[in-house]
Amino acid sequence: MTLTLERGDLILNSNYIAGRWCEAADGATLTVSNPADMQLIAEVPDSSAEEARAAADAAHEAFAAWRATPAKRRGELLKRWHALVMAHQEDLGRLISLEQGKPLVEGQGEVLYAASYIEWFAEEAPRIAGEMIAAPVAGRRMLAVKEPVGVVAVITPWNFPAAMIARKIAPALAAGCTVVAKPAEDTPLTSLALVRLAEEAGIPAGVINIVCASRGRTPEVVDAWLEDARVRKISFTGSTPVGKHLARASADTLKKLSLELGGNAPFIVFKDADLDAAVEGLMAAKFRNGGQTCVCPNRVYVQDAVLGAFADKLAVRVAALRVGPASDPASQIGPMINTRAVDKILVHIDDALTQGARLLVGGERVRADLGPNYVSPTLLADVAPAARLCHEETFGPVVPLLRFEAEEEAVAASNATPFGLASYFYSESVSRIHRVADALEAGIVGINEGAVASEAAPFGGIKESGYGREGSVHGLDDYQHIKYLCQGNLR
């Protein structure tokens, strides 16, 4: 296995199992293309259940030694990994933009975001502590200690190929777990590059194992881990239907689960809001990564009294967004991940227009000179509550505006969804802030703030947006179980 450098980007094309870079046993490969122009970037292994089982074997064999490694030492190795990621920030940022399509400045920013999780959990590793319990009778000592759950299967999405794998692997390693990972088929290269840097940092063979697989072969890879009783936890970010399948299929072996699933985030603008701040917050929350994030506002509710002024301010900002490939430094909105994504976005826009919405900005495919994956940033007014935009995760740069009159109406509409990942609202009223924050049904609430993610905060949802938390000390707890020790006869 060789590490090559193309156009300044780290390009690897092999699985990593038991400390070795290797191909699929049957030689099958899948192609990775640049969504900006559909040009081939690389071919990686299209793995099967055979590679999945080999990865689980390696992780299981490495677990005993890794869990016995002092927590301080695990933290030191994670710090070395963090330093290498930061040293390769420019190359990794270009690689993210190349395979995922986001503008280069966002690719560089994602590297910093990914690195923040590695650093955070490197520092948390030596702070893992249990508790001494006051015994109810004399002559007894009672302790609760935290232990790693074991082998963890990590399954990551394509929209943040560096951040998602770092956010899952770093706490697993800090807790003393070993890992088998499968990155999304559209964006495996960034994950492979990060694992290569972990190897260089000195993470022992078998502690991290990563296998690539196409959409067609992913089920057999994941099923191999679901059926393996040695795999004690699954951490998955993706769609709610897949998350439900993983929950059902994990029942036979009672695996621990962290599921960060679909979202349908509301964004509420009250009449007492700072409208300029609300516009800035919405632009940051909605148009990052071209709207392809799970916490993007999907429904924007604006109070009657300020709807016109807010729409005018927002239309100016949305119309000014520059669409283009990451290779153009002026680009602010890159391509969508594939043509299926563009088709879905356009169907949602057409459905809203059919139900009476007014098109204020955008609403069409653009940059046909470059390829089929570009769609214009879009702003729609007078969107009907029944529109698909309000019930399905659009995952694109489309803002639907809906009007409301009373606070209770906005809160009820915001909660009228099976999802509960993120919610946002803007208000200058202290009493309203407390009421609405308490009433919104979501795992994350942005209050006069559009950028909510942080390595120091617990990230995750409620209802059909999943369970478990990533980031913060709670994210570390999800990779541990508690053992109660009771010692008697101490007289």
UniProtKB/TrEMBL annotation:
This is NAD-dependent succinate-semialdehyde dehydrogenase. Belongs to the aldehyde dehydrogenase family. The active site is at E260. It comes from the Bacteria. Residues 21-484 form the Aldehyde dehydrogenase domain. Keywords: Oxidoreductase. The keyword Oxidoreductase applies. InterPro entries: Ald_DH/histidinol_DH, Ald_DH_C, Ald_DH_CS_CYS, Ald_DH_CS_GLU, Ald_DH_N, Aldehyde_DH_dom, Aldehyde_DH_Superfamily. The lineage of its organism: Bacteria, Pseudomonadati, Pseudomonadota, Gammaproteobacteria, Oceanospirillales. CDD domains: ALDH_F5_SSADH_GabD (cd07103).
